[in-house]
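Title: Comparing notes on inverse folding

I've been comparing how different people in this forum approach sequence design from structure. To keep things fair, I'm posting one structure and asking everyone to reply with a full sequence. Here's the target:
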Protein backbone atom coordinates (compact mmCIF):
# COMPACT_ATOMS: atom_id res chain seq x y z
CA UNK A 1 0.00 0.00 0.00
CA UNK A 2 1.29 3.46 -0.87
CA UNK A 3 1.66 5.83 2.05
CA UNK A 4 -0.97 8.49 2.51
CA UNK A 5 -0.24 12.13 1.98
CA UNK A 6 -1.86 15.27 3.34
CA UNK A 7 -3.45 17.57 0.76
CA UNK A 8 -2.59 21.20 1.34
CA UNK A 9 -5.36 23.44 2.59
CA UNK A 10 -7.82 23.06 5.45
CA UNK A 11 -11.49 22.17 5.08
CA UNK A 12 -14.47 22.23 7.43
CA UNK A 13 -16.00 18.75 7.62
CA UNK A 14 -19.37 20.33 8.40
CA UNK A 15 -19.56 21.48 4.77
CA UNK A 16 -19.19 17.88 3.60
CA UNK A 17 -21.89 16.83 6.07
CA UNK A 18 -24.28 19.55 4.88
CA UNK A 19 -23.92 18.91 1.15
CA UNK A 20 -24.21 15.15 1.66
CA UNK A 21 -27.34 15.23 3.82
CA UNK A 22 -29.03 17.54 1.31
CA UNK A 23 -28.25 15.14 -1.56
CA UNK A 24 -29.49 12.17 0.47
CA UNK A 25 -32.72 13.97 1.39
CA UNK A 26 -33.32 14.80 -2.26
CA UNK A 27 -33.24 11.08 -3.06
CA UNK A 28 -35.03 9.77 0.05
CA UNK A 29 -38.11 11.55 1.44
CA UNK A 30 -37.79 9.67 4.74
CA UNK A 31 -34.69 11.63 5.70
CA UNK A 32 -35.23 14.57 8.03
CA UNK A 33 -33.20 16.58 10.55
CA UNK A 34 -33.94 17.43 14.17
CA UNK A 35 -32.00 20.29 15.76
CA UNK A 36 -31.84 22.27 19.00
CA UNK A 37 -31.83 25.80 17.60
CA UNK A 38 -28.57 24.86 15.85
CA UNK A 39 -29.46 25.19 12.18
CA UNK A 40 -26.62 27.64 11.55
CA UNK A 41 -23.88 25.91 13.51
CA UNK A 42 -24.93 22.61 11.95
CA UNK A 43 -24.59 24.16 8.47
CA UNK A 44 -28.21 23.24 7.75
CA UNK A 45 -29.47 26.57 6.40
CA UNK A 46 -29.54 25.12 2.90
CA UNK A 47 -31.35 22.00 4.09
CA UNK A 48 -33.95 24.06 5.92
CA UNK A 49 -34.57 26.20 2.85
CA UNK A 50 -34.96 23.18 0.56
CA UNK A 51 -36.84 20.95 2.99
CA UNK A 52 -38.63 23.15 5.54
CA UNK A 53 -41.19 20.43 6.29
CA UNK A 54 -38.37 18.01 7.11
CA UNK A 55 -36.51 20.34 9.47
CA UNK A 56 -37.66 20.04 13.09
CA UNK A 57 -36.25 22.72 15.40
CA UNK A 58 -37.23 22.04 19.00
CA UNK A 59 -35.30 24.96 20.45
CA UNK A 60 -32.77 24.57 23.24
CA UNK A 61 -34.29 21.33 24.51
CA UNK A 62 -31.87 18.52 23.77
CA UNK A 63 -33.74 15.80 25.67
CA UNK A 64 -36.90 16.64 23.72
CA UNK A 65 -34.84 16.67 20.53
CA UNK A 66 -33.67 13.07 20.98
CA UNK A 67 -37.14 11.93 22.05
CA UNK A 68 -38.72 13.53 18.97
CA UNK A 69 -36.17 11.78 16.77
CA UNK A 70 -37.05 8.44 18.37
CA UNK A 71 -40.72 9.06 17.59
CA UNK A 72 -39.92 9.97 13.99
CA UNK A 73 -37.87 6.79 13.59
CA UNK A 74 -40.70 4.76 15.08
CA UNK A 75 -42.92 6.25 12.39
CA UNK A 76 -40.64 5.19 9.55
CA UNK A 77 -38.58 8.34 9.08
CA UNK A 78 -34.76 8.45 9.10
CA UNK A 79 -33.96 11.32 11.46
CA UNK A 80 -30.52 12.89 11.73
CA UNK A 81 -30.19 14.70 15.06
CA UNK A 82 -27.66 17.51 14.71
CA UNK A 83 -26.39 19.55 17.65
CA UNK A 84 -23.24 20.26 19.60
CA UNK A 85 -21.84 16.91 20.66
CA UNK A 86 -21.45 18.02 24.28
CA UNK A 87 -25.21 18.56 24.53
CA UNK A 88 -26.35 15.48 22.61
CA UNK A 89 -24.19 13.14 24.66
CA UNK A 90 -24.25 15.00 27.97
CA UNK A 91 -27.58 16.70 28.49
CA UNK A 92 -29.58 14.09 26.56
CA UNK A 93 -27.60 10.98 27.55
CA UNK A 94 -30.56 9.31 29.28
CA UNK A 95 -32.70 9.74 26.15
CA UNK A 96 -29.86 8.46 23.95
CA UNK A 97 -29.56 5.42 26.19
CA UNK A 98 -33.24 4.61 26.71
CA UNK A 99 -35.02 6.05 23.66
CA UNK A 100 -32.39 5.27 21.01
CA UNK A 101 -29.94 2.56 22.09
CA UNK A 102 -32.14 0.39 24.30
CA UNK A 103 -35.07 0.72 21.91
CA UNK A 104 -32.80 0.13 18.92
CA UNK A 105 -34.39 2.94 16.92
CA UNK A 106 -32.99 3.99 13.57
CA UNK A 107 -31.74 7.42 14.68
CA UNK A 108 -28.52 9.08 13.51
CA UNK A 109 -26.91 11.35 16.09
CA UNK A 110 -24.57 13.94 14.58
CA UNK A 111 -22.38 15.51 17.24
CA UNK A 112 -21.09 18.83 15.91
CA UNK A 113 -18.13 20.86 17.22
CA UNK A 114 -16.77 17.89 19.14
CA UNK A 115 -13.62 17.66 21.23
CA UNK A 116 -12.29 21.05 22.28
CA UNK A 117 -13.44 22.86 19.14
CA UNK A 118 -15.21 25.52 21.23
CA UNK A 119 -11.84 26.48 22.71
CA UNK A 120 -12.15 29.26 25.25
CA UNK A 121 -15.77 28.37 26.11
CA UNK A 122 -14.25 25.71 28.33
CA UNK A 123 -15.29 22.43 29.88
CA UNK A 124 -19.05 23.03 29.67
CA UNK A 125 -18.78 23.13 25.88
CA UNK A 126 -15.94 20.66 25.37
CA UNK A 127 -17.04 17.20 24.34
CA UNK A 128 -14.17 14.96 25.38
CA UNK A 129 -16.19 12.42 27.37
CA UNK A 130 -18.58 11.36 24.59
CA UNK A 131 -16.64 8.24 23.55
CA UNK A 132 -16.60 6.99 27.13
CA UNK A 133 -20.34 7.60 27.51
CA UNK A 134 -21.41 5.98 24.25
CA UNK A 135 -19.04 3.04 23.81
CA UNK A 136 -20.87 0.97 26.49
CA UNK A 137 -24.13 1.41 24.55
CA UNK A 138 -23.20 -1.58 22.47
CA UNK A 139 -25.63 -1.21 19.56
CA UNK A 140 -24.68 2.38 18.67
CA UNK A 141 -22.08 2.55 15.91
CA UNK A 142 -19.63 5.33 16.86
CA UNK A 143 -17.72 6.94 13.98
CA UNK A 144 -15.37 9.91 14.01
CA UNK A 145 -14.31 10.85 10.47
CA UNK A 146 -10.82 12.14 9.76
CA UNK A 147 -11.47 14.45 6.81
CA UNK A 148 -14.22 15.73 4.49
CA UNK A 149 -14.20 12.65 2.23
CA UNK A 150 -14.62 10.29 5.17
CA UNK A 151 -17.32 12.56 6.61
CA UNK A 152 -19.38 12.37 3.44
CA UNK A 153 -18.95 8.61 3.20
CA UNK A 154 -19.90 8.12 6.85
CA UNK A 155 -23.09 10.17 6.39
CA UNK A 156 -24.02 8.13 3.31
CA UNK A 157 -23.41 4.88 5.17
CA UNK A 158 -25.39 6.02 8.21
CA UNK A 159 -28.40 6.79 6.02
CA UNK A 160 -28.48 3.22 4.71
CA UNK A 161 -27.59 1.46 7.97
CA UNK A 162 -30.54 0.15 9.96
CA UNK A 163 -29.79 1.09 13.56
CA UNK A 164 -28.50 3.92 15.78
CA UNK A 165 -25.33 5.74 14.76
CA UNK A 166 -23.25 8.51 16.36
CA UNK A 167 -21.17 10.61 13.97
CA UNK A 168 -18.65 12.82 15.73
CA UNK A 169 -17.80 15.89 13.63
CA UNK A 170 -15.60 18.89 14.33
CA UNK A 171 -15.84 22.54 13.43
CA UNK A 172 -12.04 22.77 13.20
CA UNK A 173 -10.77 22.71 9.60
CA UNK A 174 -8.54 19.74 8.77
CA UNK A 175 -6.56 18.76 5.68
CA UNK A 176 -7.86 16.11 3.33
CA UNK A 177 -5.97 12.83 3.30
CA UNK A 178 -4.73 11.62 -0.07
CA UNK A 179 -5.06 7.84 0.30
CA UNK A 180 -4.88 5.70 -2.85
CA UNK A 181 -7.86 3.41 -3.58
CA UNK A 182 -9.68 4.58 -0.47
CA UNK A 183 -12.84 2.74 0.55
CA UNK A 184 -15.00 3.58 3.57
CA UNK A 185 -15.64 0.49 5.68
CA UNK A 186 -17.25 1.06 9.08
CA UNK A 187 -15.74 -1.11 11.77
CA UNK A 188 -12.51 -1.61 9.80
CA UNK A 189 -9.40 0.39 10.66
CA UNK A 190 -7.60 2.08 7.79
CA UNK A 191 -3.82 1.73 7.52
CA UNK A 192 -2.71 5.07 6.14
CA UNK A 193 1.03 4.62 6.61
CA UNK A 194 2.96 1.36 6.75
CA UNK A 195 5.48 0.66 9.51
CA UNK A 196 6.75 -2.14 11.72
CA UNK A 197 8.51 -0.53 14.70
CA UNK A 198 5.31 0.62 16.43
CA UNK A 199 1.71 1.52 15.64
CA UNK A 200 0.14 4.96 16.04
CA UNK A 201 -3.65 4.62 16.19
CA UNK A 202 -5.53 7.88 15.70
CA UNK A 203 -9.04 9.07 14.94
CA UNK A 204 -10.83 12.16 13.75
CA UNK A 205 -8.93 15.43 13.74
CA UNK A 206 -5.70 13.78 14.89
CA UNK A 207 -5.02 11.40 11.98
CA UNK A 208 -3.10 13.98 9.97
CA UNK A 209 -1.07 14.81 13.10
CA UNK A 210 -0.19 11.13 13.48
CA UNK A 211 1.02 11.10 9.87
CA UNK A 212 3.19 14.14 10.56
CA UNK A 213 4.63 12.39 13.63
CA UNK A 214 5.44 9.32 11.53
CA UNK A 215 7.48 11.53 9.21
CA UNK A 216 9.44 12.91 12.16
CA UNK A 217 10.09 9.40 13.44
CA UNK A 218 11.21 8.25 9.98
CA UNK A 219 13.98 10.84 10.13
CA UNK A 220 15.23 9.00 13.23
CA UNK A 221 15.06 5.63 11.52
CA UNK A 222 11.80 4.59 13.19
CA UNK A 223 9.17 2.97 10.98
CA UNK A 224 5.76 3.91 12.41
CA UNK A 225 2.51 2.41 11.22
CA UNK A 226 -0.36 4.92 11.26
CA UNK A 227 -3.90 3.64 11.55
CA UNK A 228 -7.14 5.58 11.24
CA UNK A 229 -9.51 4.00 13.77
CA UNK A 230 -12.54 5.96 12.61
CA UNK A 231 -14.98 3.49 14.16
CA UNK A 232 -14.70 3.25 17.94
CA UNK A 233 -17.71 1.01 18.34
CA UNK A 234 -17.36 -1.70 17.21
CA UNK A 235 -13.56 -1.84 17.37
CA UNK A 236 -11.53 -3.56 14.68
CA UNK A 237 -9.94 -6.23 16.90
CA UNK A 238 -8.08 -7.84 14.02
CA UNK A 239 -6.33 -4.54 13.31
CA UNK A 240 -5.50 -4.19 17.02
CA UNK A 241 -3.90 -7.63 17.04
CA UNK A 242 -1.74 -6.53 14.10
CA UNK A 243 -0.89 -3.24 15.79
CA UNK A 244 0.18 -5.04 18.98
CA UNK A 245 2.46 -7.25 16.90
CA UNK A 246 4.71 -4.23 16.33
CA UNK A 247 5.51 -4.28 20.05
CA UNK A 248 4.27 -0.82 21.05
CA UNK A 249 1.21 1.35 20.46
CA UNK A 250 0.43 5.06 20.71
CA UNK A 251 -3.20 6.20 20.64
CA UNK A 252 -4.14 9.74 19.66
CA UNK A 253 -7.54 11.36 20.08
CA UNK A 254 -9.19 14.72 20.65
CA UNK A 255 -10.94 13.25 23.66
CA UNK A 256 -10.38 12.02 27.18
CA UNK A 257 -7.94 9.12 27.34
CA UNK A 258 -10.23 7.62 29.99
CA UNK A 259 -12.75 5.48 28.19
CA UNK A 260 -12.06 6.80 24.71
CA UNK A 261 -9.85 5.37 21.98
CA UNK A 262 -6.90 5.06 24.34
CA UNK A 263 -9.01 3.34 26.95
CA UNK A 264 -10.48 0.96 24.37
CA UNK A 265 -7.06 -0.01 23.02
CA UNK A 266 -5.66 -0.45 26.53
CA UNK A 267 -8.60 -2.68 27.45
CA UNK A 268 -8.02 -4.83 24.37
CA UNK A 269 -4.25 -5.18 24.74
CA UNK A 270 -4.46 -5.93 28.46
CA UNK A 271 -6.88 -8.77 27.78
CA UNK A 272 -5.41 -10.13 24.57
CA UNK A 273 -1.86 -9.05 23.78
CA UNK A 274 -0.12 -6.92 26.42
CA UNK A 275 2.22 -4.33 24.92
CA UNK A 276 3.20 -0.81 26.04
CA UNK A 277 0.43 1.69 25.22
CA UNK A 278 0.96 5.45 25.41
CA UNK A 279 -2.27 7.47 25.27
CA UNK A 280 -2.20 10.97 23.81
CA UNK A 281 -5.30 13.01 24.54
CA UNK A 282 -6.82 14.85 27.46
CA UNK A 283 -6.44 13.52 31.02
CA UNK A 284 -9.76 15.00 32.18
CA UNK A 285 -11.09 18.53 32.45
CA UNK A 286 -8.67 20.87 30.72
CA UNK A 287 -7.82 24.48 31.39
CA UNK A 288 -9.33 27.24 29.27
CA UNK A 289 -7.46 28.19 26.13
CA UNK A 290 -7.57 28.33 22.37
CA UNK A 291 -7.82 25.13 20.35
CA UNK A 292 -4.25 25.48 19.07
CA UNK A 293 -2.90 26.09 22.57
CA UNK A 294 -4.83 23.14 24.04
CA UNK A 295 -3.52 20.80 21.35
CA UNK A 296 0.07 21.89 21.98
CA UNK A 297 -0.28 21.83 25.76
CA UNK A 298 -1.56 18.26 25.83
CA UNK A 299 0.76 16.79 23.21
CA UNK A 300 -1.65 16.68 20.28
CA UNK A 301 1.04 17.68 17.80
CA UNK A 302 3.59 15.94 15.61
CA UNK A 303 6.31 16.46 18.20
CA UNK A 304 4.08 15.40 21.08
CA UNK A 305 3.00 12.22 19.34
CA UNK A 306 6.59 11.43 18.34
CA UNK A 307 7.66 11.86 21.98
CA UNK A 308 4.91 9.44 23.06
CA UNK A 309 6.18 6.96 20.46
CA UNK A 310 9.68 7.10 21.92
CA UNK A 311 8.27 6.51 25.41
CA UNK A 312 6.27 3.51 24.20
CA UNK A 313 9.25 1.93 22.44
CA UNK A 314 11.46 2.51 25.48
CA UNK A 315 9.03 0.43 27.59
CA UNK A 316 9.28 -2.70 25.44
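Reply #1:
Here's my take.
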Amino acid sequence: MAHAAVIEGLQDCRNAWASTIEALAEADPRICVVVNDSVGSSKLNGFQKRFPDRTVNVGIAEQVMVGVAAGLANGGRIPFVSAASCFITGRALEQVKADIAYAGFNVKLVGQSSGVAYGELGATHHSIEDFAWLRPLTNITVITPSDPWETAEAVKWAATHEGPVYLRLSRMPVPALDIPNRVFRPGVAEVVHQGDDLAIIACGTTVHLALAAAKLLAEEGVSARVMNMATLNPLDEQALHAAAATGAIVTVEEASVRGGLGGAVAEFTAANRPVPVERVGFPGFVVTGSVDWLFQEYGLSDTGIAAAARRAMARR
